[in-house]
Amino acid sequence: MLASPAKIFASTVLDKLWKRVTRGGNLVDLDDEARHQLRITAKKLRYAAEFFSPLCMGKAETKRHKRFITAMEGLQDQLGSLNDLATAPDMLSKLALSGVPGAGDLVSAADKARF
Length: 115
Hints:
InterPro entries: CHAD_dom, CHAD_dom_sf. Residues 1-115 form the CHAD domain. Pfam families: CHAD (PF05235). This is CHAD domain-containing protein. Keywords: Plasmid. The structure is a single chain. The protein is mostly helical and 115 residues long. It has one domain. Helix content is 74%, strand content 0%. It has 5 helices and no strands. The chain has helices at residues 3-22, 32-51, 59-94, 103-106, 109-113. Helix 1 (3-22) packs antiparallel against helix 2 (32-51) and helix 2 runs antiparallel to helix 3 (59-94). The longest helix is centred in the middle third of the chain and has 36 residues, at 59-94. The chain starts with a helix and ends with a helix.
């Protein structure tokens, strides 16, 4: 059956990406660049998992796969929000909006604690 070798390949690829995501450590302790790299790796993992979804057979496997994709979407959203907070000051500066009243309220270090 061809699905079996494909499942082994998919498992190898997904395991490799998963290890790269999980070795990132505590999100709070990561600097902005490391967190951005983690975001990229998480995106690759999610897209790979979506690509291999036709290999999921049976209700339980399909349900587990959907839960994983949902969790990865949530992780990507959180990492994206943190990335927005990290890049916003530079963006405001480039757009010459740093001095505009209220611009500082858009981004603060305290906002990172929410994520």
